């Protein structure tokens, strides 16, 4: 399966070290520049307050199956973390849409390195607002 | 960028017509079969109640920038929908983890076609449980 960027994410973070661990830790504003050929695909996007960005972890190489997340002291299975070094370099973030200007989206809560290749945008739907209990065990209490 | 499946999703849905529109409409149980070589990467996954599955819309070909979602009567911009026909065939679903048996995860709320190629698994973290208002405009009221 081949993947081609549909745009590029501009952020204030020039290196991994500067980049926040999760979007809910970030107040940074980013610019999502979608390729002009896809501009019409952005219609109606302003009707959503939050978007899911899917992008390439373009700076990551290789992976380990047991990893130590930044927020943790123990080795964890890779798929129970969001660490960028994964078999497929696919990342996702939920961001808040501030406004759209043509093929550019201004968003809040960006947590990726500048010039990250954008692969897709999907509307964020709060799947679990019906009171369903969500358990995040080892991650608990680390989201503040 | 090249993408390789890390496993396969088994579901009761053999065709697009049978497949639910969104996971919160589905009560179906699916089996996520991760390639044996990645089994150790699943450690600690039981500590999360919900998972994000990233997969390939392997039955989709081509795309249009203006589309009519199943739940709607108007043409919408592609990126304000979750329609499978997209520039990159990447889909995501949030499912409930029932149990793990080695390299197989049994999940609830599956909404993909049987034998969908799995690209990644990430823990689901409820980013917006802090009372932040989420707006989903045209989609509103269609999630029940």
SSE succession of chain A:
EEEEEEEE
CA radius of gyration of chain A: 16 Å
Structural class of chain A: mainly beta
Shape of chain A: globular
What is the strand content of chain A? 25-35%
**Quick one: which chains have the greatest interface?**
A-B, 61 and 61 residues
Helical stretch count of chain A?
0
Instruction: Summarize the biggest pleated sheet of chain A.
Output: 6 strands, antiparallel, barrel
Unreliable residue runs of chain A? none
Quaternary structure annotation: homodimer
What's the end-to-end separation of chain A, in Å? 37 Å
Helix content of chain A: under 10%
Total strands of chain A = 8
**Adjacency order of strands in the biggest sheet of chain A:** 1-2-7-6-3-8
Mean pLDDT of chain A: 86
Search tags:
homodimer; 144 residues; mainly beta; 6-stranded antiparallel β-barrel; two-stranded antiparallel sheet; 8 strands; 32% strand; globular
Concise account of the structure shown:
Chain A is mainly beta and 144 residues long. Chain A has strands at residues 7-10, 29-34, 50-56, 66-67, 76-77, 90-101, 104-108, 116-123. At the A-B interface, strand 3, strand 5, strand 6 and strand 8 of A face strand 3, strand 5, strand 6 and strand 8 of B.
């Amino acid at each position: 399966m081949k993947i081609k960027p549909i745009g590029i994410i501009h952020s204030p973070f020039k290196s991994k070290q500067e980049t926040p661990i999760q979007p809910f830790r970030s107040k940074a504003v980013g610019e999502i520049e979608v390729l002009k050929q896809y501009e019409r695909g952005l219609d109606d996007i302003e009707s959503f307050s939050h978007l899911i960005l899917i992008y390439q972890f373009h700076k990551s190489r290789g992976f380990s199956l047991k990893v130590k997340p930044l927020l943790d002291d123990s080795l964890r299975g890779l798929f129970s973390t969001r660490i960028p070094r994964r078999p497929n370099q696919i990342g996702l973030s939920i961001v808040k849409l501030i406004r759209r200007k043509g093929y550019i989206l201004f968003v809040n809560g960006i947590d990726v390195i500048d010039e990250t290749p954008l692969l897709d945008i999907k509307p964020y739907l709060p799947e679990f607002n019906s009171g369903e209990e969500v358990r995040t065990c080892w991650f608990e209490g680390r989201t503040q």
